[in-house]
């Protein structure tokens, strides 16, 4: 495995003294895409919050870019290149696409902006439109494009497909995969579309009730669908849950 950009060992975190995730281990290296999968309430978003220092640790350790996450405030961690795209996309609805991209740049870099717009071509035609007037898919493209303009070393994306049509997700996930490989960015995806996420991931882990119940290479998890589904839904719940999250 390549040297870790982001790692967690025995990570335990939660709210009001009650753990929502327990004993989670995670490693993300340069150019790797790691997916965190699981049903609603499994602890996926809590994991991302703890990884970037938005949520205090109740146990275990997190290291980002060689330093303990607990030693830095989240905004300082973001400046170093650990960037979270939250599930609400974190946009300013009164600002235009152009404004968001301009504010996201660490320095003037026309070539980098061209690369981002090439990956998300719909944004190029929406330059002057305010973020609040964009569709859900366009907003997500803007949120991720803005994050990538910030030259991340680690990019964490929470529920990229939330509210989006699978076709849009199919277009966006490969773009993130390509940029990760081209620039050596470590990517952590929290995603509901399981097979789409695994299709662009190197490795994945499945959370259920706050614990990792399955982990391995994305290719191996895709090969053993029955084990993956049982881990995702839980053996007793499988028949009652919606299998559409596995649709590609």
TrEMBL record:
<keyword id="KW-0029">Amino-acid transport</keyword>
<dbReference type="InterPro" id="IPR027417">
    <property type="entry name" value="P-loop_NTPase"/>
</dbReference>
<keyword id="KW-0067">ATP-binding</keyword>
<protein>
    <submittedName>
        <fullName>ABC transporter ATP-binding protein</fullName>
    </submittedName>
</protein>
<feature type="domain" description="ABC transporter">
    <location>
        <begin position="6"/>
        <end position="234"/>
    </location>
</feature>
<keyword id="KW-0547">Nucleotide-binding</keyword>
<dbReference type="InterPro" id="IPR003439">
    <property type="entry name" value="ABC_transporter-like_ATP-bd"/>
</dbReference>
<dbReference type="InterPro" id="IPR052156">
    <property type="entry name" value="BCAA_Transport_ATP-bd_LivF"/>
</dbReference>
<dbReference type="Pfam" id="PF00005">
    <property type="entry name" value="ABC_tran"/>
</dbReference>
<dbReference type="InterPro" id="IPR017871">
    <property type="entry name" value="ABC_transporter-like_CS"/>
</dbReference>
<keyword id="KW-0813">Transport</keyword>
<dbReference type="InterPro" id="IPR003593">
    <property type="entry name" value="AAA+_ATPase"/>
</dbReference>
<dbReference type="GO" id="GO:0005524">
    <property type="term" value="F:ATP binding"/>
</dbReference>
<comment type="similarity">
    <text>Belongs to the ABC transporter superfamily.</text>
</comment>
